[in-house]
Design brief:
alpha+beta, 15% helix, 3-stranded antiparallel sheet, elongated
């Protein structure tokens, strides 16, 4: 055990934020693929104010209105103008042949 190197202070010390603190939000490529398309895009955004501490690793931030969506199925912003939910999709009953699948593809394309 005496041969082990001490870990750097930044790894050992955890960051705990309190309500009112200002933080930066990082864009991970897996979670925000549209904001990290290239290595030249910004890696984060902010500063944002911490509104509430949920646990030691999760915080509620004061985000701008375009980023503050909690439910991806809510209608807001650009979603209100889409006709996808207003015109329900008719699913055909029976066997799907090549001709029927071609008609379905044409109907979906518009």
């Amino acid at each position: 055990m005496s041969n082990m190197q001490p870990k750097p202070k930044r790894v050992v010390d955890k960051f705990l934020f309190e309500p009112g603190d200002w933080v930066w939000r990082s864009y991970e490529k897996k979670k925000f693929p549209t904001r990290r398309r290239s290595k030249l895009y910004p890696r984060g955004d902010g500063p944002f104010q911490v509104l509430e501490r949920i646990n030691d690793n999760a915080y509620k931030l004061d985000l701008p209105s375009d980023d503050s969506r909690t439910n991806p199925f809510e209608e807001r912003g650009n979603d209100e103008n889409q006709q996808a939910f207003k015109d329900p999709l008719h699913v055909p009953v029976g066997l799907i042949t090549k001709a029927r699948s071609k008609k379905i593809k044409e109907a979906l394309k518009g």
